[in-house]
Every structure is written in structure tokens, then in C-alpha cells.
Request: fold
Amino acid sequence: MLFCPVCKEEGINGKVALKLHVYEQHGMGEVFRCEDCSFQTPSKTAFTRHADACPATVAANKFRCPHCDKVFKSKAGLNLHVKLHVGGQGVRKASIEISILLEII
Reply:
């Protein structure tokens, strides 16, 4: 259990709860808010994790592949999938260039 260094309130469970208390009660610190739902946290890591999987964001299909019709639950999943498209094109392009060079020789 932690206590607030500003008002000395005791019984705060964890660093994130303490940061949220200091922000809400004393107007100090920074809080990250989701644009798609009511989630808020003083932890940038927790916010990033939430933003990648926010149900409201997923419902809005914000993680849709620009190359096909697939929709993903997280930004990380979409990024991995897009690399398959981009990587595949790069491999095909390289093999075409090599075959053209071989025809010239």
C-alpha cells in the first residue's frame, strides 16, 4: 500500500492508482485518455496496450488491412500482417529483377 505525498492519504494500491489519485485529486501529472472509449490511465504503457486492443477501436474497424479485407484486433497484429504483403512483393520484385539480369547475360 502506498500513500499520497501531497495529502498523505494512505491505502492506495499500486503506482498507477497513486498517479491517478494525484492527477484527479490534486491536478498534477499526466493522464492518457482513449479517444474511442472512457478508458484513462496515467501509465503510458497501459495506455498503449489498451489502444492496440480497445473494443471500441476494433468495432470501428480501425485495424483493417489496406491490401485486403482482413480486420485485426490489435495494431500489432495488423502490422505483422501488412509485412506479409510488403515482404511478399519485395521478394517477387527481387526474383523478377534477378531473372531479367540472367536473361541479359
Summary: The radius of gyration is 23 Å. Residues 90-99 have pLDDT under 50 and may be disordered. The first helix runs from residue 15 to 26.
